[in-house]
Amino acid sequence: MERTETFRRNPDRFDWRGFGRVAALAFVVAASFQGSRGLYESTEGRYAECARETLASGDWDDPILNGRPHWTKPPLTYMAIMAGTRVLGNNPWGVRAYLVVAMVLAATGTWWAGRVIWGPGAGRWAGVVFATSPVMAGAAHVASADMLTVQWVALATAAFWHGAVRRSTWAWLATWVFLGLALLTKGPPALLVPMVSMPVAWGVMRRDGAGKIDRWVAWAGLALFLLVGVAWFACEAWLTPGLLSYWIGDELIGRNILDKFDRDRGFAFVLTDYLPTMLLGAGPWLPLILWRGRPVREVWRPDPRAPLSARAARASLAAGVAIPFAVFALSKSKMPLYVAPLFVPLCLGLGRAIDVLVEQGRLRRHTAGIWVGGLLALIVAVKGGLAHVDRPKDMTRLAAVLEPALARDGTPELYTVSRMPRNGLEFHLNRLIENVPAQSFPAHVAGRVAAGRSAAYLVGKADWARLATNVPVPVRPEELGRHWLLIRVPADP
After folding, report:
1. Pair (458, 360) in one structural domain
2. What is the number of structural domains in the chain?
3. Residue of 22, 154, 262, 290 with fewest CB within 10 Å of its CB?
4. Is 399 found in the same domain as 350?
5. What distance in Å separates the CA atoms of residue 466 and residue 122, rounded to the nearest whole number?
6. What φ, ψ does residue 180 adopt, rounded to 5°?
């Protein structure tokens, strides 16, 4: 209680201890074994290869994949990967370097928001829960747009509450900048959580006569959002005929409503993935608080004596979790990390509930500290263990054995026989590799032989038994580790 009273007397005093603890936890979680695991297909390989090709093109703001424009995502994630690979090289460490920064900023942003709303205790616990969340640890270990999106959502949330509570002009303007950067990272889905939670909080504060800002600040913030987030979309749509219809028709409507990209896993996915992710994704804290019950009631119970920020936060955080979750559940495109931004409001609520438990003496600090230490050790151990697991989608391991195999005879042509391109392999080998569908494999081999051109085909062992019966010429299979074969087709069999 002493810390809380000190905070209320001097709310502008920076909590260096709380900031340091949260930042250190987030750094250890994100940085440990970050480059020890190879790049996995398809997501990590696609992002890494797109960044490599875009960097090689010299046009950083126009993503390129397999020699063609790649418009499925805005360019900011690719730019972040480019920056990491320029410093650390074309390897998993370089590809995932931006995730360490994103994790630290997201955790400290969550800490700051909780501190502004409820005080230093709730802020610290919100940041700690976020930093040791298994879901956030997973998002910070996968090269994609998700963790970077969470970073902007957390920073926008922190800036919003700082602006609302402290009436800070710079914080209001920063909120719009962070929202623009979120849009430039993952498009409109990145705005779902803040565009639900912020208006709800704003409505509560305006109803109670607070939350007023100067008209020029509102217009300046909107202008910053348009400049940072919308300008790129507008320019590219203007310069590229048909791009706007692709974004709206394919990426927005086709992906989320019509299942054009075959990602609809049905409502069962909500029960088997989304709900367990939300329940256990922050560690043991949510089940504990639901079991205890009373902290939940105290956090959400209307209290006219509570600060306005706390009253607004109740409705804001509930809406920021429930409504986006419903949208993701109804969407035809479902992936486990799509719900990652929901952990910003979720961890804020959990931080306040844990703080209530500690203040009431119903949860001892050292007990909670043991839990935090256990979560940290478990996350680091799992990340370290993954570095030693040999999986067929690990393109780093595959490239390490494939490159010397190709160098032995200097095979000029390399193809993959797979359902999708092996972008991670392209990234490591620094070359484009044509992918041949399985049904076209016999004809493709016959064509190379007829043209008098030697070739090598990368085929999964599980697929070779089916493909081998249709090969029109004698071939020489060569084992590449546990999962792959290199099929050499000489020019003159």
Report:
1. no
2. 2
3. 262
4. no
5. 59
6. -65, -40
